[in-house]
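Sharing a chain and its predicted structure for anyone who wants a worked example. Both blocks are below, sequence first, tokens second.
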Amino acid sequence: MNSPIVENLAALEQIQSTAIDLAFKFGPKLFVACLILLAGYFFGRWIGRVTEGLLQRIELDVTLRILLVRLVRVLVLGLFAVLALQNLGVELLPLIAGLGVAGAGLALAMQGVLSNLAAGLTIIFTRPFKVGEYISIVGEEGQVEAISLFNTILSHPDLSRVVIPNRKIAGEILHNYGQVRQVNLTVGVAYDTDVPAALARIDRLLAANPQVLRDPAPLIQVAGLADSSVNIAIRPWVLVDAFPTVAGEINQAVLASFREAGITIPFPQREVRLLGQA
């Protein structure tokens, strides 16, 4: 009756003995490996701060600076992880081969994600646009709010946000407005109008508008001779933030000024003649 109990006790003693042997054999190595990883974590953070300070001195782009700092931290932690595995006696060559096979399968399963990542790295390093600039691409436009490894976020003038996958940006035709945009307005005046006086009046209106930049200077000129009017082009430069509202302000000011000066803004007219009637 006692034989099963004796066998169980013997098995427990064997397990306990094996566990003690393994603890004495691998315990110190495991403890040292944990210390190595802990040292790698803190050393990586310190190296990251040093790297970020150096990159700030050379005024590197914020997105690229963050990417490089993270890359340095990962590389340092990876180096210490290799040292920890070597301390445990792990054979690295089979491990690397296994990771290579797993990585190939993962790459096939994540082609879209990896293409976004590759495009994001291309954008970050080539810097076709930066945060704060106004761009137009793939039928969308807006001010660049953030550039990440996988997508780019634009702030649209209608207060919405446009998230564009980076693979849709790389290789496309990009219109980068930078920090300023040019407003393109046209106003027509009658053919008997004193055009130089009208141009001077528009120039004074633009000079009085605090949102209109003086450098580069606004473009005011006769743009064309239409059927019923002399068309005057009004093209001032404004900051990106002011672009959605300044066109309405200028149109309202021009209308009020022309009415005050008696300058006619004509509407299209057609003259119809009936022939062959008495």
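Comments welcome. DSSP finds six helices and ten strands in the chain.
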